Records
---
Amino acid sequence: MSQPSVSAAPGETIAVNLQVNGTSHSLEVDPRRSLADVIREDVGLTGTHLGCEHGVCGACTVLADGEPSRACLMLAVQADGVEITTIEGLATDAGMHPVQQAMHDAMSFQCAFCSPGFLMSTVALLRDNPEPTEAEIREELSGNLCRCTGYQSIVDGVETAVQLMGGKSS
Amino acid sequence: MSSATTDRQSSGLGFVGQRVKRVEDERFLVGEGKFIADLNHEGMLHAAFARSPFAHAKINSIDVAAASRLPGVVKVFTGAELNAVTNPFIPFFTVGGLYTPLYSCMSDDRVRHIGDPVALVVAESRYIAEDALELIEVDYEDLEAIGSIDAALKPGRTQLWEKADGNVLGEFTDTFGDVDEAFNQADRVITKTFDCPRQSNQPMETRGIAVVVDPTTGHLDIHSTSQAPHFKKWAIAAMLVKDSTAASLAKFARNSERRSAFLAAAKDFVAANKEKMAQQDNSGMVSQLKKDPSTMLHQLRMGAGLLAADDYPTVMAADIGGAFGSKGPVAREDVAVAAAASELGRSVQWIEDRVENLLDGGQAREERFTMSVAVDNDGMLKGLRVDAVLDQGAYTGFPVAPALIALLWKVYFPGPYNLDAFEITSKIVTTNKGRVVPYRGPWANETWARERMLDLVAAELGLTPVEIRSRNVMREGVSMPDAFITGPTIDETMSVAKTFDRALEMIDFDQLKRDKADAEGRGHRLGLGIASYHEAAPGPPNFFSSVQPGTDLFVYEDGRAEIGTDGTIRMFTSQSPHGQSHQTTYKQVAADEFGVKMEDVEIVWGDTDRTQFSFLGTGGSRGGPMGGGVMRMTARELRQQVEKVAADMLEASVDDIDIIDGNIHVAGVPSRGISYADVAGKVAADRNITDEPAFMEAMKYEGVGNGGWSVATHVAWVDIDLETGEVEIPRYLVVEDCGPIINPGVVDGQVRGGVAQGIGAVFYERTHYDDNANLMSTTYMDYLVPTAMEIPNIEIEHMETLTEGENDARGTGEGGMIGAPAALTNAVSDALGVQVTEQYLPPYRLLELAGVIEPEK
């Protein structure tokens, strides 16, 4: 991940190139702005949510060069040239991503405010570990808070996704 | 799959009863939900509040000049400026013996808790607004702070409110049966005090409000994360009234159209509610006016202003990221931001951040109960006395005040057990803390204290927790009275005993013994806890009049169904969904009634211009029974209207009309059917209408039947590691009866989510103020919301007691949270062999209770 290589005086902006869901965005941003704010306000993709803005709740999780990252703790200028994937980048013209479909099938969410973070974390988890145990799922998702569900339906959703993506059923 | 969900079909052959997948997911799971922070209005300004760093202080001066000069800042309002253009919060719920201090949307001469708002910056971006906060200079003079119930009860301490008697705002007693007699006759009296510390609702989305000002008319479109948009509309309209009472009345007198409309509506209202109005208890207002006569002047001014106003704000709630009660109230920030936008004539939004939400986004349950139980040696309960204290924080919640929580204790405390007599005295105290709001079963600590006390009494008598409950629980056909000693009617839906018996069948007590021995071998302790409760969801018709006579005026549910000229079916609900899957379940209900597919029904909510008034909005576990009930009944009525027209068109008798998959036909002749569009088109052509619905039915729904209790028994197994104090929950069982289930997937989710919050409350979460009322838990590193590692799989056993009623569903939103703290603390007591009297049990406390480490202080 690149570090900001230039400094800016107060009020100055820095040019960044964000690759969001495969589309390139050339933007002038105030260097103190968070990646989450720039994705939501400048790129206009509001599916990435801000729950705590101090890196605990995980609702803002995006994939940055494939790695689950807190978009509230990352500056937009740090994402210059980084491939960002948000919840809007999961579905294709053919329909929902298997993780989205599985979470739908399992009735995983209620208010769903936390769902973008869980979906992105799950996509990364199943890429690295296509057949996780329940204990592994719970540990991997413990960086995301949900207040509605008690998590069981989300764990079910991950297990359903394993099946949809061709892994074994648990 | 580890899910305990079964794809069961509870009733009928349609969608109701099926585990239908959520239609909400179609937008949420692809990132297309529209939450308050997503709305992106053109030209919106951003607000940030300057908040007090002191728990209790006088404001000597405030200087906003430097902040105002910062480029990008549009305006900095001091507290005094916004208070000058708004009316105060006046009490909505009152009780005889209670005084409720009035307060304004901002603090201008004194702050009363950490986070108390003293200035509002409006700027071009939130970054700039927050920069400006740093430039505001406030000269505070520190005052002694009241940081605990003990301090609040102590006479002679610094008072938060000048007109109060110390820091006790009120005390009121209710007595049912001959309490002295019960206590004199019983073999013994056992007394114990139970403490619950402060918790917080903590929805994943914080609060927010976006006020869009129409530049030509000045009309306010208020987008809000509100559980009750209609109440917010009226409250904000009232608090923004500027004219004097006399000026408003003169304006009203001149406006003949408005005058006659109001008089007609008032006449209808009085005619419909004469009896309930006559029963209203005014003793609370009498106590209030004795302390603060200005309450009446403010009330008159706001009332007259509402009469005279030609325009009210429109309040809209789009997708809401959870609330658990915290987004029901009208908050000070709502009024401040609306006033700021109105004064500037420009659109302003405020999105709360998490620190603010932990400071004052809603806190709950800091309560103490001293319980005395009169009981015979065989375990038969005779009488109960409760002394309850509730710490409401500095500013009284609005409109649902802590007094209502105490009134609910009054009705609920005896629980599903028979008693001869009951007396409760409740005190409301004020401290330098954040605002108490309703939190998922706001009264739930009666269940915690009672169920904990039952185990304690059992232990003292040499009985088991099972034995004491078995001997006292109300049992249909054996010991089921017609009504609770506290008033509400009882019918067959009070099926607690059935859930209790089923739970016992599902516990292997021999295995429990082996598991306990095994745990001891590992240096752990294992225990089991049981708790039962009942909830009025919606309750019998006399439930709310038992809480407080006259309050049932506010608890009906309005709804409307329409069919457009193109055949589109639209259902309008006054509920304000925030995670409960209303859209899915109401489509299920309406689709079955109309005989159409779910996608043929549109659900409309959240816009006060399109839906009917509702005081409560979504709350009180009423979305299924009341909200769903009015959907069912309006749809049923409308279908009959459609059938009449269709019968004419098909030249058949109404009785022979059948509707399957939207095909309206004579039974047995589906090939010659017509559609809703055909029928609506015919009506439109006959009546020559284009822009109004072909069919419309509106209804005020008050529930049906005499029942409506939602009940459950919870059983928790806990395993405590005596080395670390870490807790595992190897099994958690809920046996619940909420009647016929509309969607088992939704109900299971509600139950589990509630239990998860109960687990959080007992083992992880605490809104922690020190003795000087400094808030120690202002981030998620300090306020610990449990993760997937802490919440176990929760096993749910459904029982469905059916009645004769046509709409028999009972509510289930709050129950999980009501039962869990009791079952868990009972399990901890069983595991450690000590009688726990506090609700918050983090690892260090468990180790203290186990005698592994020395208690603090």
---
Amino acid sequence: MIRLLQLEWLKNLSYKPFKIFSVIYFTVLIALLFIGLVDFSIGNFTINLKEQGIYNFPQIWNFTTWIVGLFKIFLGCIIIFSICQEFTNRMFKQNTIDGLSRKEFIFSKLLTILIFTTFSTLFVLFVSLYLGYNYSEKTSFNLVTQEIYFIPNYFIKLFTFFTLLMFLSIVLRKSMFVFLGIFALWFLEQVFNVLEMKVFYSNYPNISNQELVEKVQNEFMWSKFLPLESTSGLIPNPMMRLQIAEMLGGKFSFQYPTFNLVASLLWTTLFILASYWILKKRDW
Amino acid sequence: MEKVLIVKNLTKKFKRVAVNQISFEVQKGNVYGLLGPNGSGKSTTFGMLLSTINPTSGEWYWFGEKGTTPKTLKKIGAIIEQPNFYPYLSAEKNLKIVAKIKGIPYSRIDEVLTLVGLLERKKDAFKTYSLGMKQRLAIASAMINNPQVLILDEPTNGLDPEGIIQIRELIAQIAQKGTTIIVASHLLDEIEKVCSHVIVLKNGNALYCGSVEGMTSSMGYFELKCENNDALINALQTMNLFKKIHIQNEVVIATIENDIAAAELNKKLAQSGIYLSMLQKKKESLESQFLELVKKQ
């Protein structure tokens, strides 16, 4: 395992996209997490996210993981580029000939993904703790730990997403196609979602919007278990938790997304196995 | 003789049959040429033996063990089609990666770089190298584990004459140490200069596997010249030693049927009053032998 880590280290350390995207990612991350300290003016209306309570325990976990989660694609780019270049430079073939097995190849890429995910998760954890203890209205131990499960959820969300990128990179082998592939997948999921909603609506012709939202939340729907949707469900959009939303009558209800968790874990297993299978079956 | 590689009925079908039921053996310490025109299945065969291509059927044994495992590959050095390295990394870092994969200490890196004369350029990125240097780095990389078998697929492809000579000398140097080498090429004179054995492929079929000398039954031919070529031809015809006698550019060429030493022939001709101004016994070039073999099928 140490050997595979050293191998990935050698491959990535001098790789330009690796340096560029790492710098961008962590710069953006820091900027975003401290966004609450800045006043925004929309017309003559000023919003300060800190005053909206984003740094308050326990919802700070929801806010930080959700915001940072939006920018996972920057780390994803490193994974896409570094895996695709193995194929465009024919290095997978050369590595194989030199004596690296398919299993070791997949495993070394998973190690990289694991390190990125762990690093990003720890980063979010520590920055959230720092921000929370500095700016939260209350910092009792109970409140701090109440929704800390967003951190492991964030870890799984990232890991699943990155294994999806690994899978697409191995299938498509060109980074441009991988980006198109991700977009196509997202698009198809949306279409599927809309279609399923339409069918769902037709079952309840006379129902208020509020009730409908609640029904949709609790109902079993296939589109909730597609790869992108199931990972995004791990960390719901926290904007309804802003104080301004509460004042406007928004109601935030949230149950721990066990189904999404199971779905994500199944997807990531599937992506890893399918990646291995493709490496094995294809002629290089 | 120890057999390094045994191939039995190896077959690969893509949309068409690329390699058809080929069988051959490679003995330790020899230099083998894998001959064949473009598209005859050389690279596909190597691909299967190096585990990058899944065979349709057939089997093979490396060092007596069935198939190709990562462990086997660590005893082999191979260059396929073109030198593959991470373009953004230096030669040294690229070789570190190979050393890591093969489980070889880094101390070997400088040794193999010295062998191919690239030691001074080791800190430069691979993409700044000329084609000849890339090819030499590929050989260095293949040599890093002191392989028992070296596989070279078109090692002189795209090189200038100087580069070709450098690579050829390198191959000869490595062969002297007793390393088994299998080299594929469609440049026959190239193979002729380095190989003791050949495997001939055509349209995915193995036509021949054995020593270069045994490739055809031909014993060679004489090139002769004297004042009166007609008298010479007459004298040769009466000897019943030659299957074909003809003149080419004022030189009489007599293809041998029953072997005779050059000195013996000279003596016989002198006895019949013909004094030669030129006498040479020659073997057919690999090229003509190869063409003969390929034509026959």
